[in-house]
Design a protein that fits this description.
Elements: H1 3-42
Length: 57
């Protein structure tokens, strides 16, 4: 294997590891945000965009 091929293979490998890490981080963070949102909704906090919970004057 030439030095150039080793460099390219390493670059692809590092890129794949970084992308997998970012995807994993996003999925873990998504679960945490959904859990926080469920806790807020259970506490009675509603979204501003939620038309069903809006008060009518």
């Amino acid at each position: 294997m030439s030095p150039h091929a080793l460099y390219v293979t390493a670059a692809y490998g590092i890129t794949a590891v970084v992308l997998a890490g970012l995807i994993g981080w996003i999925l873990i963070d998504q679960r945490a945000r959904k859990r926080e949102l469920a806790e807020l909704e259970a506490a009675g906090v509603r979204r501003r965009s939620d038309k069903t919970g809006a008060r009518k004057p």
